[in-house]
Amino acid sequence: MFLGVTATVTNWDAEGTSCSLVLEDNPLVDFVELPDTCQGLSYCNILSGVIRGALEMVSMKTEITWVRDMLQGDDAYELRVKLLKQVPEEYPYKDDD
């Protein structure tokens, strides 16, 4: 939302715990070209951390991996999101009864 990126959610698994996010645009790479010596670099990996951190804020432990990256020569940007576990909410204070 803050980057102005729209994502399409696709490829749900049978359990409903894993899906793919296909990004229509990625403003982080507007003026980026990876040289041949850096083709193994995951330049957009910060987006994985942003998504993982946001999901942890709503009590979801996830694993985020890049499936396709246009900087690597693919036709789209695609992230795979896998839910590892739903963490029960913990309150830092004790409620008064």
TrEMBL record:
Alphabetical keyword list: Endoplasmic reticulum, ER-Golgi transport, Golgi apparatus, Transport
Species annotation: Ananas comosus
PANTHER family on file: TRAFFICKING PROTEIN PARTICLE COMPLEX SUBUNIT 3
Broad class of the protein's primary localization: endoplasmic reticulum
Record's signal peptide: none
Protein family according to the UniProt entry: Belongs to the TRAPP small subunits family. BET3 subfamily.
Compartments it resides in: Endoplasmic reticulum; Golgi apparatus, cis-Golgi network
GO biological process, one term: Golgi vesicle transport
CC per GO annotation: endoplasmic reticulum; Golgi apparatus; TRAPP complex
Gene3D superfamilies named in the record: Trafficking protein particle complex subunit 3
The protein's name: Trafficking protein particle complex subunit 3-like
